[in-house]
């Protein structure tokens, strides 16, 4: 059966972007690796849209992003329908080049191009944020959502911490900062009821 065509990344929409290492290999080996990946996310997302949340377990990544409306995007990003999607290829390629140079490897780092799902409602957005912030616990990398350092929770929770994330807009989706914090404080990391399907392998 032929593979279904990938969802196009289009202007003015929200997306869950994710991928993992080939054969589930580790893609982040130390703190510098996580920081470098986030540097590339900030660099390549800045011209095309906003980043709201992320989770970086050891062998995969999740991003919650939106693309700017067509009226805001520069013309060169609209010249063909695949250009916006290449943003995430640039992030992966730049990071893979860094990783292979640092660890003196030459094999492919990521399993495939990247996966994507459109985020189509505010409830989807907020549940996805909670899912990402629970990811370190889900994969047994921490016992508490606040203890895992490589999710966006640390940056979003602290209003005084510098961040490239669209923090105010993320809070607003929850109804404000206090509601954002309350939603996480009430998060049952064992029994979180997801109201829509995620990729269980991630």
UniProtKB/TrEMBL annotation:
GO MF term (any one): transposase activity
Superkingdom assignment: Bacteria
Sequence ranges assigned to domain Transposase IS200-like in this UniProt record: 10-135
SUPFAM superfamilies in alphabetical order: Transposase IS200-like
InterPro entries: Transposase_17, Transposase_17_sf
GO terms under biological process: DNA transposition
SMART domains xrefs: Y1_Tnp
Protein name as catalogued: Transposase IS200-like domain-containing protein
Originating species: Neolewinella agarilytica
């Amino acid at each position: 059966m032929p593979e279904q065509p990938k969802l196009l990344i289009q202007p003015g929409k929200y997306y869950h972007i994710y991928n993992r290492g080939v054969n589930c290999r580790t893609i982040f080996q130390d703190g510098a690796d996580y920081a470098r990946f986030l540097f590339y996310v900030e660099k390549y997302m800045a011209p095309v849209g906003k980043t709201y949340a992320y989770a970086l377990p050891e062998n995969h990544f999740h991003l919650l992003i939106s693309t700017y409306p067509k009226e805001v995007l520069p013309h060169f990003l609209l010249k063909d329908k695949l250009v916006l999607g290449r943003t995430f290829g640039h992030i992966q390629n730049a990071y893979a080049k860094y990783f292979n140079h640092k660890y003196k490897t030459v094999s492919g780092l990521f399993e495939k191009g990247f996966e994507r799902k459109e985020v189509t409602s505010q409830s989807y957005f907020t549940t996805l944020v909670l899912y990402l912030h629970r990811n370190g616990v889900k994969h047994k990398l921490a016992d508490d959502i606040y203890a895992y350092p490589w999710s966006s929770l640390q940056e979003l929770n602290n209003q005084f911490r510098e961040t490239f994330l669209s923090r105010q807009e993320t809070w607003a989706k929850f109804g404000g900062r206090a509601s954002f914090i309350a939603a996480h404080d009430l998060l049952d990391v064992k029994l979180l009821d997801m109201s829509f399907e995620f990729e269980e392998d991630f």
